[in-house]
Amino acid sequence: MAAGKAIPRDRLPALQQTYDTLCSYFGFYDDEKHFMRQILDGDFVKPFFKEYRRSYLEPTLQLEDINCDELLRLCRTTNAFALTKYAGSSTSNKEGWTALDHAARFVVRVLRFSWENDGEWTYGRFDPDNDQNFESDTEFHQVWAILRYLQAEWEAANLEQWELGTLSETFTSMLSSRL
Asked: What span, in angstroms and rounded, lies between the C-alpha atoms of 147 and 75?
């Protein structure tokens, strides 16, 4: 969220429902839900969302929903985890970047930083085609879900016209496919 911007009270119930679903997806229930907030506000996510917010959310007039399948396809076809554009510690020129480019950078940076620093995600590589236990896919989907939730929070606090849309349904679908 941008500093000093509070989420209007009438938007909180919709966000809470989505947050609860996100918590369930991560396996946090009832008195464990605060662990999800610790992840969202922690060193393995927060600095990368701050960059995403500054380089994409704040300057963009028409925000896009980031489709997980499209993002996964982009990361596979471009070998995003090996490209400096996405994996490098700094990228000064993001002119011409799409919403998917910004999202790919967020996911790549979060996962790589976590892998390198014993963080929340520890599988250690992005290799969805050779991953028998789907750990790579799970980590990718979890970080995408975090990005989508944090973007929804930011939009709720900063956009006059706001609608949560189908994010809660998407999370519910992800949760049911995991079971």
From this structure: 15
Q: Pull the structure tokens for residue 167.
A: 């994010």
pLDDT per residue rounded down to tens, the chain (179 residues)? 445 589 999 999 989 999 999 999 899 999 999 999 999 999 999 999 999 999 999 999 889 988 999 999 999 899 999 999 999 988 778 989 999 999 999 999 999 999 889 888 886 666 555 556 667 788 899 999 999 999 999 999 999 888 776 666 776 666 665 54
- Residues 144, 107: Cα–Cα separation, whole Å: 7
In sequence order, the 6+-apart residues with CB closer than 8 A to the CB of 15 are 7, 152, 153, 156, 164
The string of DSSP letters for 18-57 reads HHHHHHHHHT--GGGTHHHHHHHHSTTTHHHHHHHIIIII
Whether residue 23 contacts residue 15, with contact meaning beta carbons closer than 8 Å, is answered with no
Q: By the 8 A CB rule, do 149 and 66 touch?
A: no
Q: Element (H or E) spanning 115, and its range?
A: helix 99-116
